[in-house]
Amino acid sequence: MTEILLQEEIMALNNVRSLKNIIQSVEILRIGSVRSFSAGGKAKKGAKGAAAADAPKTSSLSKEVKSTTVVGANILKDGADPKILADSEYPDWLWHVLDKRPALSELQRKDAESLPYEDLKRFVKLDNRSRIKESNSVRAKN
Q1: Which of 29, 41, 43, 63 could serve as a FRET partner for 132 with CA atoms 20 to 30 Å apart?
Q2: Confidence band (pLDDT; 50, 70, 90) for 128?
Q3: Which tens digits make up the pLDDT trace of 54-111?
Q4: How confident is the model at residue 1 (pLDDT cuts 50, 70, 90)?
Q5: Around Cβ 119, how many Cβ atoms within 10 Å?
Q6: Burial letters for 96-114: b for 16+ Cβ neighbours within 10 Å, e otherwise?
Q7: How is 62-84 classified by DSSP, letter by letter?
Q8: So what's the pLDDT on residue 46?
Q9: Where in this protein does the record put region Disordered (predicted)?
Q10: How far apart are CA 2 and CA 6, in angstroms?
Q11: Residues 122/101, Cβ–Cβ less than 8 Å
Q12: Whole-angstrom Cα distance, residue 108 to residue 131?
């Protein structure tokens, strides 16, 4: 009886794997078949408008507007671009978004017990990710 259940579980897992492969294939086809169009037609060499098209574009906004607003950040149809605030009005975490974080190899060299909580969390995440990638590559070779 247990052998039959085990075989049914194996068949179910195989069906799930094949279904995942089919879904991935469909997604790859969907991504690969996206068409894109250029914004405008190409100007022929020697055409009258070719020199104007090659010239750098200048902005029609004044320097005052550029220095007080975040131009192009508006996502609403009837909205306006947001104003630039003083640095003190932004949250503290914003200034650390682009800070460099240690790589897995650097975290592995350090003692795990001496790591701060955030670095320890990052170490666990990166270590799990690398082990998953390694096991996937071993499975792919078989």
Answers
A1: 29
A2: very high
A3: 666 666 667 666 678 888 888 898 988 888 888 899 999 999 899 888 898 888 888 8
A4: low
A5: 16
A6: eeeeeeeeeeebeeeeeee
A7: -HHHHHHB-TT---SSS--PPBP
A8: 55
A9: 39-63
A10: 6
A11: yes
A12: 14
Tokens of 12: 């179910």
Q: What is the DSSP string of the chain?
A: -HHHHHHHHHHHHHHHHHHHHHHHHHHHHHHHT-----SSPPPPTT-TTHHHHHSPP---S-HHHHHHB-TT---SSS--PPBPPPGGGS-GGGGGTT-----HHHHHHS-GGGS-HHHHHHHHHHHHHHHHHHHHHHHHH-
Residue identified by tokens 């104007």 is: 52
Please say whether the beta carbons of 121 and 109 come within 8 A.
no
CA neighbor of 90 nearest in space, from 115, 70, 114, 66: 70
pLDDT over 70 (residue 41) = no
Q: What pairs with residue 69 in β-bridges?
A: 83
